[in-house]
Design goal:
Layout lengths: L1 H26 L4 H30 L3 H45 L4 H27 L1
């Protein structure tokens, strides 16, 4: 029970510590790139910790290997679904962020171009829908 509490507290403490260190390095006048790199490295360390620890606890705590892998497989399924939706939404946001101002500019110059321009914005939004569709297929497959 205490070990599980420690496993829950360690990533939170590590992330809080990394935010404090990044703000202090930026406040001391160091570059923002260094602070951002520190944040990415700490995120990677916490992500690795959160992926490795449940695998180790599941392997040690369960005597039967088949029953130990079942919750891990379910967790990785949720992780894959979340990643597919999240990354697709980030890509869709970037596409809409670049396409919408161009569509507004084209429609402002000539209102006849509105129908053509809005198609490109809708294509950018479609990327996020494809990511959501893939995550639904992952969860139901």
């Amino acid at each position: 029970m205490i070990f599980n509490s420690i496993l829950l507290i360690v990533p939170v403490v590590f992330l809080i510590l990394s935010v404090v260190l990044a703000t202090k390095t930026f406040a001391k006048g160091r570059s923002a790139k260094r602070s951002m790199l520190l944040q990415f490295l700490s995120f990677g360390a916490v992500a690795a910790f959160c992926l490795v620890c449940p695998l180790a606890v599941g392997a040690v705590g369960e005597a039967d290997a088949a029953s130990a892998l079942d919750p891990i497989a379910k967790g990785l399924q949720y992780l894959g679904a979340g990643l597919s939706t999240g990354i697709a939404c980030i890509g869709g946001g970037i596409a809409v962020g670049h396409g919408a101002p161009a569509a507004i500019g084209a429609a402002a110059e000539d209102p006849k171009n509105f129908g053509k321009a809005i198609i490109f914005v809708a294509l950018g939004e479609g990327i996020a829908l494809y990511g959501m569709l893939i995550s639904i297929l992952i969860l139901n497959g």
